[in-house]
TrEMBL record, chains A, B:
Location in the cell: Cytoplasm, Cytosol
Cofactor section: pyridoxal 5'-phosphate
Protein name as catalogued: Selenocysteine lyase
Keywords: Cytoplasm, Lyase, Pyridoxal phosphate, Transferase
Family recorded in the similarity comment: Belongs to the class-V pyridoxal-phosphate-dependent aminotransferase family.
Pfam families: Aminotran_5 (PF00266)
Organism superkingdom: Eukaryota
Amino acid sequence: YIGSSGLSQLNMKSFAFDLSHAPECSLQNSFVCCRIYMDYNATTPVDPEVVRVITDALTDAWGNPSSNYLPGLKARDIIYHSRDTIARMVGGKAEDIIFTSGGTEANNLVFHTAVEHFRKSKTSAQGDTNSKQLNGRGSLPHIIISSVEHDPIKLTAKHLLKEDLCGLIGPDWVLVVDVTFVPISKVTARVEVEDVIAAICPTTCLVSIMLANNETGIIMPIKDICQRVREVNKQRAASAPRILLHTDAAQKIRDGNPVDGMFQFYGPRIGALFVNDPGTTTPVYPLFFGGGQERNFRPGYDMVYCMVGFCMDDELLNRIKTSMLLILKSILLLSLYFSELRTHTWKILNVFCGNLVMCSHFLRPSHILLSCGIPYHVATNALRISVGRCTSREDVDIVVEDLRDTVEQLERMN
Amino acid sequence: YIGSSGLSQLNMKSFAFDLSHAPECSLQNSFVCCRIYMDYNATTPVDPEVVRVITDALTDAWGNPSSNYLPGLKARDIIYHSRDTIARMVGGKAEDIIFTSGGTEANNLVFHTAVEHFRKSKTSAQGDTNSKQLNGRGSLPHIIISSVEHDPIKLTAKHLLKEDLCGLIGPDWVLVVDVTFVPISKVTARVEVEDVIAAICPTTCLVSIMLANNETGIIMPIKDICQRVREVNKQRAASAPRILLHTDAAQKIRDGNPVDGMFQFYGPRIGALFVNDPGTTTPVYPLFFGGGQERNFRPGYDMVYCMVGFCMDDELLNRIKTSMLLILKSILLLSLYFSELRTHTWKILNVFCGNLVMCSHFLRPSHILLSCGIPYHVATNALRISVGRCTSREDVDIVVEDLRDTVEQLERMN
């Protein structure tokens, strides 16, 4: 149990001891008088204007969007406007936006589409003499991702690889993929364009590299990768599948350059996949089947109450775009490491983070930081501090002061 | 364009003519002074108490549920309590509830699980002498559904069948299923237990029959089907897969008898799948991969703002349970059919339904009504009227009066 007296009045050593016996949720019982949110990179508070429009929608737009009476028409109107706003956000057409339940689903839809796309390409190329190169291990759909992707990308890839390793499917290629995890540069923490291009083989059907990393804020060279992959596609044999390009843009919305897969900032969570002419220029193979919503690319009841947060005018849109850039540019990664206190440091950080400052820390060293070449013991004690548009200069001063106190106390104990 | 004068003052014939040229959404421009909602079976308004808790959650519980600071802890608390409420609603354990984005996803998860379950059973039975019976067409996973299932069930089944018909996969059994659509009785509009049991074959891996029909309100004999299928499972050869049982309970929540797949009434839409000991007693194979939410059975960010509508006390829970039964028992199906006006009747109904009374009508005859043996022309002009807990006796009187006026006008024109 954590007392109500605040971090500075506690004896650090006994405190760490107490925490180790306390259930994780005991923080809930603590009296918190001063809390500063600095974890905008994990999630953002909901904008009061968004709360207002959602409340209105719950009262007025509760109808089935396919019905012809007012609460349904209002719901339909919300879907139309949200789609339009997102299209303007990414610089695409409204028809190119497919709403999903979130980024995880959007990313899984992309992987599923890539595998199906490969399967259909292979079927249509049957009888072609070039298709001989697609035998053995080389007949698996091949996917390229970076080694620092977000979980929904990394784990989907690993799951598909594991299916293969389990040997449950045998020599069948339908449900398995071959994946190349392109490492990032230890200097720039970015994937190198040349490394991505070098990984391409005749069975490559998808390149999926995140737009900006969620832990380091590093922006990947997506534009250059797109250009180079397009050149490869032009020179490809007719029997090889076209390489689809995808970027998980959960952390950043790119101006004027369409991307697919994003979260909503300063609103409730929902996903949207941007696809260039879905079903015609770019294939989309749905994950579910049902009532025809989202032109059958993603059926299921429309999440009107989440979408409504997107119904915004240009001024609010610009404000939010600027705020998103601010979040990315503002990530500060710190690591407090003292050899003697090794096992307890994270618990002390837990109090620093959980009680006074709300920011992200890691119980296990983040695979992303390790990929950047950061030593294990430093990565274990990393803190991620990120500011947003509600953060004031005073907030930053208080956090810096508090962090200095924590470090001093740790040093004294050392 | 529809004028503001209301149905009773309009000349029916010219009106029908006008409507045929008007875009579908022109109703939006009409001034509507008196509207009575009688389509509770399609969707329900959001309870004001639910609007309040959602607004509170948007303001206070916007944190990532896995974080340790207050807005995250509040989100975690909402997830915990919603799961508990639903478990009490269906008479199951909290651990048995898997939240999804809606009924469509929940139903698709069940089909995906059944096919994977069959695949793994077949793999583990390899070498068994009884597995010889699983050759040729008989090696496909077999699924039994009723002929009047809701779209997410019917279309998923049809999609899996179509994959087979396209011949794109060839003789591979991984992605294809064999489906039996059990017809309903023309007398009771129910599936007969004996018909379901008779359809079972050695490759049957799933029986999915809806709890209550969304158009007729007819409740299916799920309890008896469950009991009989359990007996079949007991007598099955070790090489045959256990038959999984599923019921789409979008229309009714069953007391004390666990079911899986339901929508939320009087709140925003969300899905929940009830599974008896998921991953141990009953297999669950996820559709997506990602950040570990819902114990990896359904990863993806938690829809806290939709779940919060489930955080209710026993009194509200009982009120809503009673209301759900009321909706089911209150479905009234009417058909206004006049041979001369055949092509225009639905447009007149559109006004009756869309302008004064909000209820469901069908542009094409419903396959469910046709399955019940209702003639094509009668099914085409069917109206579904359903009341809910906000419907007053006065509302019913007004609608009956208005319906009588409409019929009289139609008769005069005939």
